[in-house]
Design goal:
The protein has a single domain, classed as Multidrug-efflux Transporter Regulator, Chain: A, Domain 2 (Orthogonal Bundle). It is 64% helix and 5% strand. The protein contains 6 helices and 2 strands. Strands 1-2 form a two-stranded antiparallel sheet. Helix 4 crosses helix 5.
């Protein structure tokens, strides 16, 4: 899971249903060709493909990419180690911990919306 300090460096995830590869690239600070490579290496990462083989990522995909990014870039895991870590986390996930992370993210986004509304 992303550490809270690392999560603050990345922009908040907008409340949209689908994201293009370009949007995900900006949200996760990862180049599009890296995202396509990670799709091959991490079976958990499966964006929806539509017309012309265009990728559309959902919110859980963006969160997964941020987890992969954290494991590889901040925690120093190899691709194989990160894959193993994610599969272990998936099999033995602490639902309460995952809920706290999601709630923390939602709270952050709501605070940003509140700031925007109070500016008027």
């Amino acid at each position: 899971m992303l550490e809270p300090t690392n999560n603050n460096e990345l922009p908040p995830i907008p409340s949209k249903r689908y994201f293009t590869i370009g949007e995900v690239s900006e949200l996760c600070s990862v180049k599009p060709h890296v995202l396509r490579y990670w799709e091959q290496e991490f079976p958990q990462l499966k964006p929806v493909k539509r017309r012309g083989n265009r990728r559309y990522y959902q919110r859980q995909d963006v969160i997964m990419i941020r987890q992969i990014r954290s494991l590889l870039y901040e925690q120093g895991y190899t691709i194989g180690g990160a894959r193993l870590q994610l599969s272990e986390n998936h099999n033995h996930a602490d639902p309460l911990r995952n809920d706290k992370a999601v709630l923390r993210e939602i709270r952050q986004e709501l605070e940003e919306v509140a700031k925007l509304l109070t500016l008027d």
